[in-house]
Amino acid sequence: MSAVDPGVADTRGRTHGRVYWLLADCWNIVRRGLTAYQRQPVMIAWQLGFPILSVLLYGYVFGSAMRVPGDGDYRDFLMPGMFVMTMAFGFINTATIVVYDSTKGVIDRFRSMPMASSAVVAGRGVTDLIVACAELAIMMLTAFAMGWRPDGGWGFLAAFGLLLWLRFALIWIGVWLGLIVPNPEAAGGLFAVAFPLTMISSIFVAPGLMPDWLGHVAAWNPVSSTAAATRELFGTSVGGGDSWVEQHALLMAGVWPVVLTAIFLPLAVRRFQKLSG
Amino acid sequence: MTDGYAVRAEGLRKRYGDKLALDGFDLAVREGTVHGLLGPNGAGKTTAVRILATLLRLDGGRATVAGLDVARQPREVRARIGLTGQYAAVDEVLTGRQNLEMFGRLFHLGGKRARLRAAELLERFDLTEAADKGVGKYSGGMRRRLDLAASMILAPAVLYLDEPTTGLDPRGRGEVWEAVRTLVAGGTTVLLTTQYLEEADRLAARVTVIDQGRAIADDTPDGLKSRVGGDRIEVVVAERSDVPRAVQVVARVADGEPEVQETELRVHAPVTDRVAALTEVARTLQDDGVRVEDIGLRRPSLDDVFLRLTGHRTDGADRTDPAELSRKREAAV
């Protein structure tokens, strides 16, 4: 037996303290997530190709036929919506990886190790945010190439931050669903749920153009607030409505993710703890 | 502190809803041995292992691993155990080496030692050649070996193997058995769950039989088999009138009284010198002109052990262990 002192985890844990190991464990989980992308170029292509394709497709196909209230440019309306949609669909990525890890016993292995178990989830979240940054950057460049000209400066950074803020909140929905969904195939089915949820919003069409009742639902959809707020911050504010929630898009784009996190973070944590019956 | 036992469980209870997965389960595993935990699907094997691996909370009873209480000192226990579940818990996308290095870092070895340890384990589990290939391209046996290697990163005092060969072909099974033997030679204590008496027989020094959440026997594999009567010779004749003659012939080679199933014209009895008995019976019956429909040797199966110990067969369908059920859902993946 090649000897590695079995007590090694303990002693090193003591010299460094809990916070150090939580961060170190978290970073190792992030590294694992990023290595997976690096080893699967197809996954990167899909992950980044889909947003590019969406921007091109919706921009050119819908862009030529759609209109917005007032006399704005539909592409100015659409682009922030596309960014929001990509962030919104992100929870499916989170869920898919979590369901894979939990059904293949990888999470059990982590839990049977002397590591910080919260790092499993936290590391997943950080990985997803890094990937989200890459997605946003690629989409924005594509949009730029198509003639989208946002304001620069703080407004731009704030918009970027709000998009990540939404993505952050959706991590918990993804983790929660990933621990509930029975297998990776079923996780693919989440698209069927996510698609209408993102369509009934102000992502593609201004709620004001929808039938009254549907317009209300769309306006109160959390992703609508982020879409409207980022349009405002990018300086391409078009197609805004005059209901209270549409008038307070910036506020609500900050509040909605707090609400979602407040609901789904505890649910995800409880589900994770429930693994130990 | 451990008084020679690596694992001790006393009166373990685990309830899922109104079902008792474990109902006063006892277990004692001696240090440095392979201990088999044998039982049908749904008997509570996986639940027991998951409790001993700190993955599940227990509802009652007490368990210690390497002298540490699983409920009160889970972190300390985790630094001393390895776990290989029914599905190879490795990242399919990463290479074998990347997997082991990642787990090594998560075991807090630090980057350099994690790399060294990974190389060492790859060598030992005969995976060096495939080390830099994605695990997705590994065979079932290789995957399981990598999984074993990952459980061995800290050279744990106790290693749990939950049905390590389920779903493997005979070659993969042989590979895993070989790897387990090497581990035990190095001093690791192994708790192995299995549905196969043969596997317990090959690897384990002692076997606990579990049924409906309780240990119903604890013995050496030979002791268990002798309770069932060991190997049996079995003859089925074509004519009812030949049955008495068959009984006579079988009795000559048998270790015990032959049993007769009249309706099936079947005569069977325990034997020790298996092949000699078979040839002797076959030849004698042929010389006597008895028409034989079927003749053969039967090793006792888990079913036989169960039938003898519990009086019922191993059809676990009506009392499925929820922990195993949730894993079955995963098996479909």
TrEMBL record, chain A:
What is the protein's membrane topology class? Multi-pass membrane protein
Residues in ABC transmembrane type-2 domain copies: 42-275
Q: List, in alphabetical order, the GO biological process terms annotated in this UniProt record.
A: response to antibiotic
Q: In the UniProt record, does the keyword Ion transport occur?
A: no
Q: Where are the membrane-spanning stretches?
A: 41-61, 81-100, 121-148, 154-179, 186-206, 249-269
- What are the record keywords, sorted? Antibiotic resistance, Cell membrane, Membrane, Transmembrane, Transmembrane helix, Transport
Q: Name its cellular compartments.
A: Cell membrane
The molecular function terms of the Gene Ontology recorded here are: ABC-type transporter activity
Classification via Pfam families: ABC2_membrane
Q: Which GO terms describe its cellular component?
A: ATP-binding cassette (ABC) transporter complex
Give the record's family classification. Belongs to the ABC-2 integral membrane protein family.
User: PANTHER family annotated for this entry?
Assistant: DOXORUBICIN RESISTANCE ABC TRANSPORTER PERMEASE PROTEIN DRRB, TRANSPORT PERMEASE YVFS-RELATED
This one is known as Transport permease protein
Q: Which organism is it from?
A: Streptomyces phaeoluteigriseus
Automatic annotation (TrEMBL), chain B:
One of the record's GO molecular function terms: ABC-type xenobiotic transporter activity
Q: Specify the protein's topology with respect to the membrane.
A: Peripheral membrane protein
Q: What is its main location?
A: membrane
Q: Name one GO cellular component term.
A: plasma membrane
Return the EC number.
Answer: 7.6.2.2
Family, per entry: Belongs to the ABC transporter superfamily. Drug exporter-1 (DrugE1) (TC 3.A.1.105) family.
User: Could you say which enzyme class this protein belongs to?
Assistant: translocase
User: Entry's SMART domains?
Assistant: AAA
Q: Which organism is it from?
A: Streptomyces phaeoluteigriseus
**Does Isomerase appear among the keywords?**
no
According to the record, the residues making up region (Disordered) are 313-333
Sorted keywords for this record are: Antibiotic resistance, ATP-binding, Cell membrane, Membrane, Nucleotide-binding, Translocase, Transport
Give the signal sequence positions.
Answer: none
Q: What is this protein called?
A: ABC-type xenobiotic transporter
Show where the ABC transporter domain sits.
7-237
Q: Where in the cell is it found?
A: Cell membrane
Which biological process, per GO, is one annotated for this protein? doxorubicin transport
